[in-house]
């Protein structure tokens, strides 16, 4: 009986000591643990490595010589292929090479030149509005901050991020177009149902120095392999990392 009492007392002491043991200096105490599952850093790194291997030189496919031309081309690329935009822009920029020149054009003149890109009425209105705003408020120069860019007619976050990343090498956000939206969700890097929310998720999970290249690479991947319908999973170098229900092939 005496032995039992002693043993209970020892157990209580051990428990007390364990609770009170301080964490070793330099341990991970207090740090937020790294995420596991689809967002585990090593998985994200493996995805980025596979994208680098598949698309080492991925760049913006819109032909342009200046930030202004890129801004206009990006506005025109909504609901239109980059190839079609690249057919239309040379004549548009030959006729109206600067924001000041474009701001003096009439809307029907612009509409006629961009008609084949679709939604030409709204796009012409946006381009004309952008030309006027940049001429009158930004001294004829496309601004270099997201906050200023999104005040320009026709330039929401996606367009602003394209111009900032491609023309100025600035990563203030991640370009989320239809390909980035679809593939980020297929790869479980994001799960939201709007482009804005997916961008916020990607900004948390991707290293900032990959925000620009990630979008270029994923856009190429979406065009060539991870298409909206019937993705070519048997040709995809991300296949072993992907658990999407849309997969058409499993290794
Ligand atoms: S395995 Fe298929 S669904 Fe997954 S990323 Fe590759 S092409 Fe897309």
Structure notes:
This protein has twelve helices and no strands. The longest helix is centred in the N-terminal third of the chain and has 19 residues, at 2-20. The chain is globular, with a radius of gyration of 26 Å. Helix 2 crosses helix 12 and helix 10 packs across helix 12 (211-224). By secondary structure, the protein is mainly α. It has helices at residues 2-20, 41-54, 67-76, 82-95, 99-103, 107-114, 120-137, 146-149, 157-168, 178-186, 195-205, 211-224. The site of iron/sulfur cluster has 14 residues, from loops.
Order of helices and strands: HHHHHHHHHHHH
- Helix percentage: 40-55%
Figure out the total of helices. 12
N/C terminus separation: 64 Å
Main attributes?
single chain, 251 residues, mainly alpha, 12 helices, disordered N terminus, binds iron/sulfur cluster
What does this entry show, briefly?
With 251 residues, the protein is mainly alpha-helical.
List the helices and strands and how they pair.
Blueprint (H helix, E strand, L loop, with lengths): L1 H19 L20 H14 L12 H10 L5 H14 L3 H5 L3 H8 L5 H18 L8 H4 L7 H12 L9 H9 L8 H11 L5 H14 L27
Helix pairs in contact: 2-12, 3-9, 6-7, 10-11, 10-12
The structure holds iron/sulfur cluster.
Iron/sulfur cluster binds next to loops.
């Amino acid at each position: 009986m005496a032995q039992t009492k002693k043993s209970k007392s020892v157990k209580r002491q051990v428990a007390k000591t364990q609770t009170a043991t301080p964490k070793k200096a330099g341990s991970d105490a207090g740090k937020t643990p790294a995420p596991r599952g689809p967002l585990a850093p090593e998985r994200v790194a493996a995805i980025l490595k596979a994208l680098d291997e598949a698309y080492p030189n991925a760049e913006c496919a819109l032909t342009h010589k200046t930030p202004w031309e890129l801004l206009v081309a990006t506005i025109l690329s909504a609901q239109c292929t980059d190839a079609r935009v690249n057919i239309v822009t040379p004549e548009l920029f030959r006729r109206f090479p600067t924001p000041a020149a474009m701001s003096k054009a009439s809307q029907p003149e612009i509409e006629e030149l961009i008609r084949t890109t679709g939604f030409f009425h709204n796009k012409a209105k946006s381009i004309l509005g952008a030309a006027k705003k940049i001429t009158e408020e930004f001294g004829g120069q496309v601004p270099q901050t997201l906050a200023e860019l999104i005040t320009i007619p026709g330039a929401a976050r996606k367009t602003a991020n394209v111009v900032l990343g491609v023309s100025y090498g600035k990563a203030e956000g991640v370009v989320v177009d239809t390909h980035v939206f679809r593939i980020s969700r297929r790869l479980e890097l994001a799960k939201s149902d709007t482009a804005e929310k997916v961008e916020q998720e990607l900004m948390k999970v991707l290293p900032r120095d990959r925000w620009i290249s990630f979008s270029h690479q994923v856009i190429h991947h979406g065009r060539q392999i991870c298409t909206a319908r019937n993705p070519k999973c048997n040709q995809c170098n991300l296949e072993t990392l992907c658990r999407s229900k849309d997969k058409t092939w499993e290794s």
